[in-house]
Amino acid sequence: MSRVLLKSLRLKNIRSYKHGEIEFPRGIILFEGDVGSGKSSILYAIEFALFGLGDMRADSLLRMGEDKGEVELEFKVGKNLYKVKRSLIRRKDSISQGKGYLECNGTREVLSPTELKERILQILNFKESPRPRASSVIFRYAVFTPQEEMKAILNLKPEDRLQTLRRAFGIEEYKLAKDNLR
């Protein structure tokens, strides 16, 4: 995994945000606020910007009553500055992802949602499934674990909890290698 420095996030019609812009300070970030104040919306927006919908439902991400939404995330990996933009579009009975772009040091490339995810996984060096409907296990468990999911993990049997963490951090192959060595 590569070290990622979040720079800024811009939201339009995402969950509780009609419009929003956040400049992230350098260092560790703590989101604090009352229930419903938008903390999870920010984290879901970051996840969507990086990985697409994955296992998220588009209708829970697009602000109610709106036909279009978008997220733009600026982040740094090494010496490279990236900007990724993803969008949601409501059509008659469904909501889908529109094309987006990935910009690296000012050079922009328009990509499909699948292409964006593949490229982001390469940039971040995440060894995860590039399938569009697959969520990012690393992001979901290392950066942002929704409260109910964390509760479920903590209530697992110790071996199952350990296996979940191994999968989340991509270290299950070390256990397999150790077992095979025996």
Strands of the widest sheet, in order across it, are 2-1-3-4-5-6
Structural class: alpha+beta
**What is the chains' assembly state?**
single chain
Q: Determine the strand fraction and express it as a percent band.
A: 25-35%
Distance separating the two termini: 29 Å
Supply Rg. Answer: 17 Å
Q: Give the biggest beta sheet.
A: 6 strands, antiparallel
Give the beta-strand count. Answer: 6
- The pLDDT mean sits at 84
Helix residue percentage: 25-40%
Silhouette: globular
Helix-strand topology string: EEHHEEEEHHHHH
Describe the 3D structure.
It is a single chain. With 182 residues, the chain is α+β, with helices and mostly antiparallel strands. 36% of the residues lie in helices and 31% in strands. The chain is built from 7 helices and 6 strands, in the order ββααββββααααα. Strands 2-1-3-4-5-6 form a 6-stranded antiparallel sheet. The protein is globular. The protein starts with a strand and ends with a helix. The model has no long low-confidence stretch (mean pLDDT 84).
Blueprint (SSEs and pairs):
Layout: E1 4-14, E2 17-23, H1 39-51, H2 58-61, E3 68-77, E4 80-91, E5 94-104, E6 107-111, H3 113-124, H4 137-143, H5 147-154, H6 158-168, H7 172-181
